[in-house]
Amino acid sequence: MLLLALMTGCATRGTVAPVGIDRDGALPNPPADLAKVPDAAPRVEPIRNGGPNKPYEVLGERYEPITGDAPYADRGLASWYGRKFHGRPTASGEVYNMYAMTAAHATLPIPSYARVRNPANGREVIVRINDRGPFHKGRIIDLSYTAALKLDLLRGVAPVEVQRITYAEIRAGAWQKSGEGPANEPPPVFVPDTPPGAPQRETTAVVAATAAGPNYWLQFGAFAKLDGAEALRQRIAEADLTLLPLLTIVREGGLHRLRAGPFPSADEARATAARLRDEGGLESSLIEKR
């Protein structure tokens, strides 16, 4: 039953809702400036043939997830999901964060990345696919709260265009968006000290650097294998969901380095490091980048 609940994803989300949250929707007092949360930053991630990518059946319908680096494009209805599943496992095993840039899809590989466009206003976002669903007729993607907010889709189900970002596009940097909103709009920056709520299940997103001055990062570890960095990222996300949009894995010097940032000041980075050390036993070091 647990496996079925995970695989049904956004269709029925068969897990039991937390006490007092028996229907989906928004949480009160969401973090400030969610419209500035950066899009997911595509990277090449291995796709397993089994697990969330094996064929499955929901509500009498059989689905066969894509397991290769195949292009995909579709048009249909988008929905979004929120508080009822916030903090619960997704089909990928990651924790769902309604404030991260993620989405659920019935057949796209887990993990993979997709560009979602709202044709009504021309807005585009890039999300990380880490969950299964939706399974309602005509709906092709189930967005996180923040992804829906950035597309102006929180009012209900609406038409969208979905296009998968392939490995070739990621390697070539061809996934970069042409732009969203006014040309003079400042680059999105997620402020680390917003109220709690920020998982991915994350989705990990790379935060845009500030326009001037040094950037301060916390580094939690460096690993020869990506799996080690991914495991630590999951542990940190579970310890403090607000850090999820700030977590990124950087390939540098032959190692996979897990970092959070950028923080607007060294003092704020140190305060976060001290809190994580005292509350969760998580050690980190301060890094300054220019």
Please give a structural write-up.
The chain has 5 helices and 12 strands. The chain has 2 domains: 2-172, Barwin-like endoglucanases, CATH 2.40.40; 215-289, Alpha-Beta Plaits (2-Layer Sandwich). It has a 6-stranded mixed barrel. The protein has a 4-stranded antiparallel sheet with strand order 10-11-9-12. Strands 1-2 form a two-stranded antiparallel ribbon. It has 290 residues and is of the alpha+beta class. It is 17% helix and 26% strand. The relative contact order is 0.17. It has helices at residues 2-8, 145-151, 167-172, 226-239, 266-280; strands spanning 56-58, 61-63, 73-80, 102-104, 112-118, 123-131, 139-143, 158-165, 215-223, 247-252, 255-263, 285-289. Strand 5 (112-118) and strand 6 (123-131) form a beta hairpin.
- Would you state the CATH class of the largest domain? Mainly Beta
Global morphology: globular
Low-confidence regions = 1-9, 11-22, 178-212
Strand content: 25-35%
Rounded Rg: 18 Å
